[in-house]
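Minutes, methods subgroup
Present: GH (chair), OT, SY

1. OT presented the first of two proteins processed in the latest run. Sequence and C-alpha cells recorded below as shown on screen.
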Amino acid sequence: MTERDEFSPLTKRAVALRAGYCCSFSDCSQLTVGPSEESSSAVAGIGDAAHICAAAPGGRRYDLSMSPEQRSHIENAIWLCANHARLIDRDSVLYTADNLREMKRTHEAACAEKVRKASSQSTLTDDLLAVGPGIVCIGELRGFDESEWTLDLKHFLVGDVSALIQFVDTFPRVGREDRFILVNSIGDGRALTSAPAVSKSETGYLVRCPVAPRSPRTMAQQLGSQWAISRATNDLFVEKGQIARVSGLASLPQIIRSCLSIQRGESPFHPNFGARFAEYFAAFRDSPWLGQLLKLEVIRQSAIPYNDDVMKRQYTPFHCVDRVWSVEILAEAPTKNRLPTRFELEVNGVGRWQCDVSIFLSSERPAAAVKIR
C-alpha cells in the first residue's frame, strides 16, 4: 500500500483557521463547522484540508518533484467544504494546482481583510474572546453590567469545550492571575470572582461570567521613576554624568517592552508574571488572527491585576492603560529576536496615545505552550 504524505493535525487546524473555517472554493465560502445536537460538546464539521498536489502517486495533480515534506506542508493545503474537496479530485484539467493556489490566496486575503476591519471597529461584533489562559474563541460580548458579563462563544481558536468545562470545574484551584475574561472588540477585560456558568446557545455556548469591578489605574503622570533602558542595546546608559532615569508617561514604552518581552515562568521571583507574545507568534505566525491574539495579551496586561507576592501589592502590569485600541505588527519577522509593534492605547490622564516598541521574542520554548485543537 502506497504511503500518503498526510497533513499533521496542526497543519489542518492552521489551514482551516486561515480560511475562517469557510470553503476556499471560488464563490462558495460555505461555513464548514458548527454545533452538533448529539451533545453539548459535540461539533459537526463538513470541511477538509485538501491536497493541492496529491498526497500519493496516482492522485490528482501529483508532483513527482515534490518531497514528502512539501506535500504535507501547509502551502500544499487548501480548506474546502466536502463537496468541493471531492470535485477538485475529479477534474485536474479544470482545477490545476495554480488555479487552486490562486483560490486559496484570494480567499485567505479576503479573510484577513475581514479580520482587519473587525479590529478597527469599536462596536460589539464577532471578535476574539478569552476565558482564562487556555481558551480563546471567536464570538461576541452579548451583555454586561457591573457584576456580570455574558459571552457568546461561537468557535474555539485555542482550547475546546472540554477545556472550558475543566476551567469551570477546577476554578477554585485556578491561580488568581488566570481568572479573567478578555474582549478584543472593546479593548478591555475583567477578573472573574467565581466560576462562569455555561449553557448552549443557537450559535455555540453562552457563558455568564461573574466579574470583579474594574481594576484601578494610575495616572500616567504619576508613574514612578525607574532606570532608563536603551532601545538600541537594551542596557542602562549614562546621561549628563549619571545613569539615566525615566518617569511619568516617558516610562510607559519601557514598561510595555519589559512586560511583553518576559515570557510567563521566565522570572524566578515572579513565576506568574509575563506575556505570551513569543508563544502566540510561534503558533500563529502565518495566521490572520495573530494581531488579534497579541491584542488580547495587551488587554490582559492592561486590565487584569497581578498579585505581587514579593512587594505585597496588586496592580495591572501596564499600570495606566484604560483601554487597548489596536496592536499592529510592523514587520513580517523579528530582527535579532525583536518584533517592531505599534500600540494605540487609551492612557489614564493622557487620552488616546500611540507608540512603537520592539518586543523581544525569546527563541526558547515557552513554559506553557498554546494548545491548538
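2. SY then presented the second protein from the same run.
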Amino acid sequence: MAYNLGPEGATLNPAITLTATYDPQGLPQGVAEDDLYIAYWDGSQWLTLETTVNTEADTASCQLSHFTVFAVIGTVAAPAPPAPAPAPAPTPAAPGVNWPLVVGIIAVVIVAALLTFFMVRRRAH
C-alpha cells in the first residue's frame, strides 16, 4: 500500500521519522519481515530509504526529508539454488588388450619353438 504525503515536493529540515505499521500475516509468501523497507516514488522508479524494521511491533521506520508517495515494500528472497546432482559413478574401463604382454608371450613361444627345433635337429645328426 502506498501513501501520498503532501504537499508533494515540500522539504523537511530537520527530517522527520515516518513509522508505518504492517500486518505480518498479510505479507506475500516468500517475503520476510526483515526484508521490508520503505521507498519513495521519484516519478519513474521506487528509491529505497534506509529503513529500520521492528518485527515485535510490526513497524518499519525511516527518516523523511520531503513529501511524496511512500510505500512499505518487501522483496521475495531468491530461492536457494538446487543442490548439484551427484556425479555419476565412474564406469569401470573395459579391460584393454595388453599388447606388449601378448607380443612378449608370442616371442617367447617362437624362441622356445626355434630352440626346440634346432636341438631336435642337432640330435638327429
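Chair's summary of item 2: The CA atoms of residues 77 and 83 lie 17 Å apart.
Next meeting: continue with the remaining queue.
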